[in-house]
Amino acid sequence: MRNFEDLLGDIVIHGAEEYPREACGVIIVSEETTDLQYIRCRNLSAGTSRFTIDPDDFSSAARLGEIKAIVHTHPDATPTPSKSDRRACYRSKLPWVIVSVPDGTMTVTQPEHCTTTPLLGRQFHHGVMDCYSLIQDYYDEVLGIELPDMVREDDWWAKGQNLYLDNIIQAGFRMLSPGEPHKVGDVALFTLRTAMPTHGAVFVAHDVILHHLTNRLSCRQPFVGVWTQLLYGIYRHRQME
């Protein structure tokens, strides 16, 4: 059977075609040949320094065989995994193959070798380390509750998508009734850009929220002033009842 290194040529070709954007894909074990294959996926992220695997492409690859690794390229950079790469690798529970383009060097990062990223002081990286991933990690590390992943396209709120409201009930939350007191662990949704909620936070004290704004470090802030004015609603997970 081939190993990950044997697929390097296919990944480099894909990376060169996508350059200067990051290319992404998955490595599967084919059900037909029982051999490793690299499957290209579309990158839904804009810009040149991030990737979001198209969930339809991921599902199609999974139908072809067992997914063994997540792959992406680092254009004009070393294949060293970033903090956000390590965080995402840890959550994916799959190895991450990173290939530098154009020089073709490769690293393979195992999820068990990754540590979780501190909740405070995180750099913002939409879709990987943002307001929702901070809520996910708080729930996992502090409350022992696993929340589902949610693919976020860049500027999803401007594309007719309503990701928080479309997914929060399915994720196990209910909206608190008017006058019902909130408690530590409840999630607050805020309307920052549109009438729909586009930002989330988690209560870490009665009057303190933990959250992560675009282009800022994750932090704790008092739940006063503008945050009470922008509040859309407060939600409680069924395991917190």
What does this structure look like?
This protein is an alpha+beta fold and 241 residues long. It has 2 domains: 4-112, Cytidine Deaminase, domain 2; 131-240, endopeptidase domain like (from Nostoc punctiforme) (endopeptidase fold (from Nostoc punctiforme)), CATH 3.90.1720. The chain has helices at 8-18, 55-64, 83-92, 131-143, 163-167, 226-230, and strands at 24-30, 36-41, 65-75, 96-101, 106-109, 173-175, 187-190, 199-205, 208-211, 219-222, 231-237. The protein has a 6-stranded antiparallel β-sheet. Helix 3 (83-92) links the parallel strand 3 (65-75) and strand 4. It is elongated and about 60 Å long.
Overall outline: elongated
- Strand arrangement within the widest β-sheet reads 6-11-7-8-9-10
What's the number of extended β-strand segments?
11
The helix tally amounts to: 6
Number of domains: 2
**What are the secondary-structure elements, in order, as H or E?**
HEEHEHEEHHEEEEEHE
Helix-strand makeup class:
alpha+beta
Instruction: Give Rg in angstroms.
Output: 19 Å
Which stretches of 5+ consecutive residues score pLDDT under 50?
Answer: none
Please report the distance between the alpha carbons of the first and last residues: 50 Å
CATH class of the largest domain: Alpha Beta
State mean pLDDT (0 to 100 scale).
Answer: 93
User: Which second-level CATH architecture of the largest domain applies?
Assistant: Alpha-Beta Complex
How much of the sequence lies in strands comes to 25-35%
User: CATH H level of the largest domain: which superfamily?
Assistant: endopeptidase domain like (from Nostoc punctiforme)
Largest sheet at a glance?
A: 6 strands, antiparallel
Q: How much helical structure, as a percent, in the residues?
A: 10-25%
